[in-house]
Amino acid sequence: MIDYITVVLVLYFISYFYYLYISQGIGKNAQFLQLRRFFPCALLAIFPSAIAQLNLSNQLFISSLFVGAMWIITYPLLYYFTYHKNSTDFGFHFDIVFGLYIIGWLSALKILVLHFNVFSAFLLTFLVTVEFLILLIPISQWIFYFLYKSCIDENSMMMLQETHYNEILEFFKSFSIPVNLLIFVIPTSVYGIFIYLNIDASVSTSISINIYQLITLLAIVAFLTIYLWKKGKGVFVRTGIVELYLDVKEYFETTKLYTQNMKERLKDLQVTPQKPVFDKPSTILLIIGESESRDYMSAFSECEYDTTPWLKAKKEDPHFLLFPNSYSCIAHTVSCLERALTEFNQYNDKQFYTSCSIIDIAHKAGYTTSWYSNQGHLGCADTPVTLVANTSQTAKWTKQNLNQVQYDEALLEYLEEVNPQKNNFVVIHLKGNHFNFINRYPSQFTKWGTPGKYDLILNYLNSIAYTDSILEKIYNYASAKLNLQAILYFSDHGTLPDKRRSPNFDGFGTVRIPMFAYFSDEYIQKNKEIYQTLSDNQNKYFTNDLSYELMCSIFNIKSNHFDETNSLASPKYKFTREMLTTDLGKMYIKDDTTK
After folding, report:
1. Is 288 left (phi over 0), alpha (psi -120 to 50) or beta?
2. CA–CA dist 77, 495 (Å, integer)
3. Which contiguous run of DSSP H or E holds residue 461?
4. From residue 466, how far is each of 301, 415, 516 by CA, in Å?
5. pLDDT tens-digit map of 243-271
6. I need a surface site. Which of 352, 384, 404, 543 has the fewest CB within 10 A?
């Protein structure tokens, strides 16, 4: 019995002082509360083994102890590593409580299996599988930290929840074979070791308990099952990583209010004029790029390679206006586009799900709306981008079959569906230059490097050149077939092609984006002030969460949901380089010293 008491005390003191070490800003009351709380947790971790006189060096107990220790250590420690230098208030006691209780819960279940001795091998295998699945959560966090040197945060959890299965395949293909083997071999090996240890231990372990001990164990299992796993209130859902997962999941569910609130928004929305003023049916295009950085585009920067020959040539054409000081509001697609497409932005207190979108404006302004995307259709997550897209009269996505690459040229055939006898507003969402870059263009399109050879920089440059060719084809078709009046193009964010994408702010290179506009002769003649203002403002600074207002100006409308001071095409544009921010207000554009 002395051994069990000793282990209880060791677990208790280690857990408590570890909690104090990896927490910051916790008050005396919280310290005293955990001083009391952790003791019964440590007691229940060991009590089942003490009742059954299970040796604490037994492999059955050791694997359960390892699982619990990983939960105790992982999220609090990785969070501490990531934020202790710039955060003064955090603590994750529920991870420690869960880790201690899971030791007792798993141990008690294994003891009961061996006591009843019915289908022991099968039931133990099942329990070990459950044990491993519980362990897989902290293992995944360590793998993430190994890759990004950061714990999983809100942005990365959003990225994980919205990731398409093809992107997952591309992600793993981007690693070398040894790294992929390491990622998969470690968890698989742990699972195999757990199976071996527990089955081997069951052969040499005999457990016999009396009726009172049995009732006590059953009571412990019942208590811990409820306390750990109760929906909404159990300890599991209050651990750091699970709480983060649920918060992000709730965020996505909250965005569904956008659809539910649509009728109310449109009832309040006023737009004038309610019909385009062009002489005959016309088309306006909004083209959204993906992960394209202007730093690597010859139209915007001095580049060794002419990556954008079409756009570079158009710089001399007065119908095209290029904006060399454009930035993304955040280097994360969904968080960026839910702002770029609606009134919601970094500089106001609006919410996405109550904000009007550019699709709403286009409807009211008399346009037939279409949305064509080569991004994965994330219907299961209902991301804000998908919600806005689905309010279009036509919304289509290219087929995203498992392990099949779909190039942006697949979008060109959708343009043939646009009726030239109607006034059209068409949104085209490119896959653009999303990692893995080598999959963004056909092998025969390779301009630099060896076709099919993995080279991050050259692959990225080739993908930019391919995007330039796609933009040219879209422009040529729309000009010839759809009476094209205007185009606005911008990328959601940039990227650092020689660095693996990080969910956290990774420098201004990830937010320096291209933006350009095109206007026809008829558009310029009928909207002289808009064109002249944009021409005068070409070198002003801009963040793409203000694209909603810019599109409102391009439509040349007035609205109770249009703040002209946010529009780069308005003489009232209020923003300067010193005022604009990125990373959702955390970083100032003026601090981009490379500009």
Report:
1. beta
2. 29
3. helix 456-481
4. 17, 18, 17
5. 999 988 887 777 777 878 888 888 889 99
6. 404
